[in-house]
Structure formats: structure tokens, C-alpha cells
Specification:
six-stranded antiparallel beta barrel, binds magnesium ion, six-stranded mixed β-sheet, binds guanosine-5'-diphosphate, alpha+beta, 19 strands, elongated
Length: 370
């Protein structure tokens, strides 16, 4: 049977816990705010206080965001979200840095890019690309394991002087499993001993057939160090994105995914949210994983405060009640009561799961009995 603490019930009714305790006392029950009462007693109290009883099923309480689908006519083009993968030392970090430097916007403003876990690059032709700043397949698979498949396109970095390595193959497999199209960036072409053609040939063994070999996977020879052909790589991404016709509805309550989250000494809990659809605005009330909150400030990848963030835009969100986990979903809801209700429900669920999974040490039990 369902139970609820007196305090939680008071919160949901927007009444004082002490008043509920008093009412319970009149009903002949001696309980404190932290004690639980059963459903019948709770319902009695709710009517006693003149509130309406609303039975919420588990599915109702949790937000089923997959179920409300946007009308096709509401969809507008959005920037692709790109993840860079590949073997260690093949140049993932260098490429991310080089591409960030290729951002014409940052160049114009002379701005310093902030590390917020993701950033956007505006190419010369005006097209915008979002890069997830978490190189490597680990972050990618972790997010995916949490049901957050945010990547639209994977850039597979292969060093031209080193070729296909174990993590190259792993990256290929992860991208394939996620159904994410690959663009091959053959890096370090400035080096002696660079052999891009051999990379293309060896990729055939892993069913990556690049255009030069008669397939449809784009490949671009680059040098992250010498900043060669970065614009070609951006063009290839823009082309791939065009083929995919990536769209989202910007005119609705926002929904996003946590890319990174931390407890900041000065600012409290901070999360980088990649907006998936809708527009996130300052003042919005939301649920984020098992946390609730209200957007106090939004900060973009240039460290600038912004008033809102639309689809595919990464922003730092201030105003969380606690630190969520990477891969969690942020959903804007109608009011704070609703946000708290959903967050409380999710915290309860998480606790139940942890308790169920908690390993029981037999050894400890026996010594306790002895
Ligand atoms: P990651 O492990 O994939 O992130 O690789 P890094 O970006 O850390 O690069 C590993 C090493 O390769 C560093 O010493 C880089 O300076 C070097 N490197 C990266 N890209 C290039 C390139 O295009 N040309 C050359 N010559 N060296 C590169
Ligand atoms: Mg690195």
C-alpha cells in the first residue's frame, strides 16, 4: 500500500506540516511530520483541508516526453550535434580545439570560449554546428546507456600515420549501434609517413566505405595541428546534416539533455543542457532528472548570459535544486508544485532501486548475530 510522509503531503497541498499534525491529532493519531501515513488517512486529510483528491498513476507523475509528438508543420531546421571519436592520441582533443578556433563568431567578438561540455561553431557559410566536448566513446556510450542519444553525426578521427587501431574499431561499432552516420577525419596529414589512402583501404574491412572507394561515407584529410582543411570538414558536416533534415519545434516548453553537471562553489549546482526541442528561457520551471528548479541564468559557450536557448544549443543552467546526472532529461513544466511532485517521485523511485540493489553482506549479518 502507498504511504506518504505528513510533510510531503503538506507540501503537495501547500499547507503547513504542523497544521496537518494538529488535524491528525484531532483524528486520534499521534504522528510527527516525518512519519508516514497510509493512503486512506491521507485522503481523509486532503478532504478535511478542503482540497480535491487527484489520484496520479505512476505514469502520470513521471513525464512521458516521448509521447507528445510535435506536429510536422511546427518543425524548424536545427544545428547538427556532433561527437568526435577515435583512438587515443589520434588527435580528438586537438581537432576539437582547432574547430573551436575556426568559429567565426568567437573570432569577431574576440571572445574566450568557456568549457561547458559543448560548443557551437558558426561556419563561414552561416551554418551552425554543435560539438560535444567530451571526446571518446565512453561519454558517448554512457549517455546512450542512459537513453540519451544526442549525437546526430560522429566524426571518426584516424591518424594517417597510425591507421586503424582498437579504439577506432570500437568507435565504429558504437556509432553503428547507435545508428549515427560517420564522417571520417583522416588526421595528421602533415606528418612524414602519413598514408591517408591506406586508412581508406583498411576501413573497408570494417564496412566503412568512403566516397573515394565508391561508398557514401564522407572522408576529409585534415591536420588539426596545422589547421588544414578544417573548413572542408565543417562543409562535410553541414552536407551530412542537410541530408538528415534535422528539425525540432522551437515554439514549445523546452526539453534538453544534461551533458555535464557539477556543484560550483560560487554558483551552486550547474548543468550544461543541450536543448533538444522547445526554447529554454530564464524563469522557466523545470524538472531535471530527480531535481527540480527554476532557470536563474543561462550562460552560453562564450561565457555570455543569454535570455533563451533554442534547439541544439548548449547552455549552462543555473537555478537547479541539486546536481543532476549526465544523460538526465530536463523538462520544463507548468509550475513549481508539479516540478517538485515529479522530482520527489523520481527521488523515491531512485531510492527504491538503490535499496533493492543494495548488496547484503552475509558476513556482516552473521557477525551481527554472533
Ligand atoms: P587525443 O588523445 O585523440 O585527444 O589526441 P590529442 O589531440 O591529444 O593529440 C595527440 C598528439 O598528437 C598531440 O601531441 C598532438 O599535438 C598531436 N597531433 C594532433 N593532431 C595532429 C596533427 O594534425 N598533426 C601532427 N603532426 N600532430 C598532431
Ligand atoms: Mg584527448
Amino acid at each position: 500500500p502507498d504511504t506518504i510522509t505528513v510533510q510531503e503531503l503538506a507540501n503537495r497541498m501547500a499547507e503547513k506540516g504542523a497544521d496537518l499534525v494538529k488535524a491528525l491529532f484531532k483524528m486520534g493519531m499521534m504522528v510527527t511530520v516525518n512519519q508516514t501515513i497510509d493512503q486512506d488517512t491521507a485522503e481523509l486529510l486532503v478532504t478535511e483541508f478542503g482540497h480535491e483528491i487527484k489520484r496520479v498513476s505512476e505514469a502520470d507523475v513521471d513525464i512521458r516526453h516521448d509521447e507528445d509528438v510535435d506536429a510536422p508543420e511546427a518543425l524548424k531546421p536545427r544545428a547538427p550535434v556532433v561527437t568526435i571519436m577515435g583512438h587515443v592520441d589520434h588527435g580528438k582533443t586537438s581537432l576539437l580545439d582547432a574547430l573551436r578556433g575556426a568559429n567565426v563568431q568567437a573570432g569577431e567578438a574576440g571572445g574566450i570560449t568557456q568549457h561547458i561540455g559543448a560548443y557551437q561553431v558558426k561556419a563561414k557559410d552561416g551554418s551552425v554546428i554543435t560539438f560535444l566536448d567530451t571526446p571518446g566513446h565512453e561519454a558517448f556510450t554512457e549517455m546512450r546507456a542512459r537513453g540519451a542519444n544526442v549525437t546526430d553525426i560522429a566524426i571518426l578521427v584516424v591518424a594517417a600515420d597510425d591507421g586503424i587501431k582498437p579504439q577506432t574499431i570500437e568507435s565504429i561499432n558504437h556509432a553503428k549501434a547507435a545508428g549515427v552516420p560517420i564522417i571520417v577525419a583522416i588526421n595528421k596529414i602533415d606528418k612524414d609517413g602519413a598514408n591517408p589512402q591506406r586508412v581508406r583501404e583498411r576501413l573497408l574491412e570494417h564496412e566503412i566505405i568512403v566516397e573515394a572507394m565508391g561508398g557514401d561515407v564522407q572522408d576529409v584529410e585534415v591536420s588539426a595541428l596545422k589547421k588544414l582543411n578544417l573548413d572542408k570538414l565543417l562543409d562535410a558536416i553541414a552536407l551530412q546534416a542537410e541530408i538528415m533534415e534535422l528539425k525540432a519545434n522551437p515554439d514549445r516548453n523546452a526539453e534538453g539533455t544534461v551533458v555535464e553537471a557539477k556543484l560550483d562553489k560560487g554558483r551552486g549546482p550547474v548543468a550544461t543542457i543541450l536543448v533538444r526541442r522547445g526554447t529554454l528561457k530564464v524563469g522557466d520551471v523545470f524538472v531535471c532528472g530527480a531535481e527540480s528548479g527554476r532557470v536563474r541564468a543561462l550562460i552560453d559557450d562564450q561565457g555570455k548570459q543569454v535570455k533563451s536557448a533554442g534547439p541544439s544549443m548548449p547552455v549552462e543552467v543555473l537555478g537547479l535544486g541539486g546536481v543532476p546526472m549526465a544523460g538526465d532529461t530536463l523538462t520544463v513544466v507548468e509550475n513549481e508544485a508539479r516540478a517538485r511532485e515529479v522530482a520527489a517521485y523520481r527521488q523515491e523511485q531512485a531510492l527504491k532501486k538503490r535499496t533493492a540493489q543494495a548488496p547484503v553482506s552475509l558476513e556482516g549479518m552473521f557477525s551481527a548475530l554472533a
